[in-house]
Amino acid sequence: MLIDLKNKVAIVTGAGRGIGNEIAKTLAGEGAIIVVTDIRQELLDAVAEEWQRNGWRGLQLLCDVRKTEDNRAAVAAVEQAFGRIDILVNNAGVAGGARVEELSEETWDLNLDVNLKGTFLMCQAVIPVMKRQRSGRILNASSFAAIIPSVGGAAYAASKSGVEGLTRVLAGELGAHEITVNCYAPGMIPTAMNRFADRTDAEKSRLLDTLTLRRWGSPKDVANLICFLASDLASYITGTMIDVSGGKFATQMPWVSHREP
Ligand SMILES: NC(=O)c1ccc[n+]([C@@H]2O[C@H](COP(=O)([O-])OP(=O)(O)OC[C@H]3O[C@@H](n4cnc5c(N)ncnc54)[C@H](O)[C@@H]3O)[C@@H](O)[C@H]2O)c1
């Protein structure tokens, strides 16, 4: 059985770098037409070069997911260029925070605005197109922080828990239109966002101890899940959150078996 994404039109938000970039490349490699959006033009320029080099089809669009007009303009541009939108991956995100007592309102708002409101606004822009087609796949980046949050991560955890709630409501609202909506919860994927790779060896070891597979995830691990969820093979999956964390805290002490001789 093959995952067939040939000629599907996909929008991946915040795909200039990191996990979103790998999702975009993996979908493009499977033959999908990929629209990469990001808030940073220099990242989009690098994407454009790579797309040209590989002969991949698509568009690169500057779009701040916090802005209604940007999202609507991006969706209109995709419809005009390709006539349809099969897949929306709401990947754009920020992380950052402090303990609640010290957390600034600005940091709270940034997390909620990009991660949650951005997802809401982009969905709102794409839904009419998918409804007209009577088909679509919406995939939202939540986080393991929505399952077990970290101390100092109130704003991020609240935003990503919100994404899970929004996903389920949307699945309910859109099921009758043959549109599925799911979210996914990456665990620890070293990227520029979290700088896991820059931690001390002792810190890294403590973090790895929480993972059943005791290794970092890669953007490709997430991209492979997205390929499946975006495909026809996943047509009976909606309204759920899928953990892609290498089994983070699948048991209370996942490190025990890694210490056995
Ligand atoms: N890396 C991890 O371990 C991890 C874990 C759980 C969830 N996630 C989620 O996965 C997604 C990608 O994370 P990443 O680690 O690749 O981060 P990253 O910082 O490398 O990439 C995020 C991208 O989003 C873009 N972006 C930021 N604000 C934007 C805005 N307002 N509009 C449009 N684009 C914007 C950035 O320019 C960047 O290209 C995020 O939603 C993140 O919360 C990541």
What does this molecule look like?
The protein has 261 residues and is α/β, with parallel strands linked by helices. Helix content is 43%, strand content 14%. The protein has one domain: Rossmann fold. It has a seven-stranded parallel beta sheet, sandwiched between helices. The radius of gyration is 18 Å and the shape is globular. The structure holds nicotinamide-adenine-dinucleotide. It holds the Pfam family adh_short_C2. Keywords: Oxidoreductase.
Radius of gyration: 18 Å
H and E string: EHEHEHEHEHEHHE
The assigned structural class equals: alpha/beta
Q: What is the correct CATH architecture?
A: 3-Layer(aba) Sandwich
Beta-strand residue fraction = 5-15%
What number of domains? 1
Please give the CATH class: Alpha Beta
Low-confidence segments, given as residue ranges, are: none
Please work out how many helical segments DSSP would assign. Answer: 7
Terminus-to-terminus distance:
39 Å
Principal-axes geometry comes out as globular
**Main sheet: which strands, in order across?**
3-2-1-4-5-6-7
* E-strand count: 7
Overall pLDDT metric: 97
Helix content: 40-55%
CATH homology superfamily name: NAD(P)-binding Rossmann-like Domain
- Main beta sheet: 7 strands, parallel
Hetero groups in this structure are: nicotinamide-adenine-dinucleotide
CATH topology: Rossmann fold
Keywords: Oxidoreductase
Pfam family, one: adh_short_C2
InterPro entries: KR_dom, NAD(P)-bd_dom_sf, Sc_DH/Rdtase_CS, SDR_fam
Protein name: Short-chain dehydrogenase
